[in-house]
Amino acid sequence: MKVGVFGGLFDPPHIGHLIIAQHIFEEFKLESVLFVPAGHPPHKSDYSPYHNRYEMTKLATASNVNFSISDIEKRIEDKTYTIEVIRELKKNQDELYLIIGSDQWLEIETWKDPEALFRECRIVVVRRSKYEIEKESKLFDHIMVSTSPLIDISSSMIRRRLQKGQSITYLVTPEVASYIKSNNLYK
């Protein structure tokens, strides 16, 4: 079974995440895309509580039968490393396609055991504005570059808009917008 693994903070999840996931689902003929909200990522320090990010991601993906969500990183108390998550997920899946942005691609050699990650799964890199997909890496020949559209929306942009009292209509699903409002997030 070919499963896309889409990890991230999802703080909040936005339509760009959904468009990319759907595109990759079709482009690589996957059976499903598994969204994995980050627990305690080693390269980030400032983010919303896990339960909020998980619930928003669950709401954002609920209407697509090809999308599912995993709470695997919630169960890891320490820093959550991609290689460990992939190894755990691989126990139940045949073929994993890890979906990362070109911003993450630039840092991949600083991740825990990147060579092992390439042995455990296929890596799909999605273009992000301002982050070129560098070809100098010794790992470049082992990635697949997605043709997904360049979506210039980011969670940080959405948080800034909310802090300024600006609308996030059409940037997140209505369900996520409602959750953000009812939980008074990002003010």
How would you describe the overall organization of this protein?
This protein is α/β, with parallel strands linked by helices and 187 residues long. It has one domain: 3-Layer(aba) Sandwich (Rossmann fold), CATH 3.40.50.620. It is 35% helix and 17% strand. The chain contains seven helices and six strands, in the order βαβαβαβααββαα. The protein has helices at residues 15-27, 50-61, 82-90, 102-107, 114-120, 155-163, 174-182; strands spanning 2-8, 32-37, 67-69, 95-101, 122-126, 143-145. It has a six-stranded parallel β-sheet, sandwiched between helices. α2 (50-61) links the parallel β2 (32-37) and β3. It is globular and about 45 Å long. The N and C termini lie far apart (42 Å).
Instruction: Give a quick account of the main beta sheet: strands, pairing sense, barrel closure.
Output: 6 strands, parallel
Stretches where pLDDT is under 50 for at least 5 consecutive residues are none
> Helix amount, in percent?
25-40%
Query: Strand percentage, roughly?
Result: 15-25%
Task: Specify the CATH homologous superfamily.
Answer: HUPs
CATH class: Alpha Beta
CATH domain fold name: Rossmann fold
Number of DSSP helical runs: 7
Strand order of the largest sheet: 3-2-1-4-5-6
Let me know the average pLDDT: 94
Q: For the terminal residues, how far apart are their CA atoms?
A: 42 Å
Q: Under the CATH scheme, which architecture would be assigned? A: 3-Layer(aba) Sandwich
What is the H/E string?
EHEHEHEHHEEHH
Query: What is the CA-atom radius of gyration, in angstroms?
Result: 16 Å
Structural class: alpha/beta
Overall domain count:
1
Query: What characteristic shape results from the CA principal axes?
Result: globular
User: How many β-strand stretches?
Assistant: 6
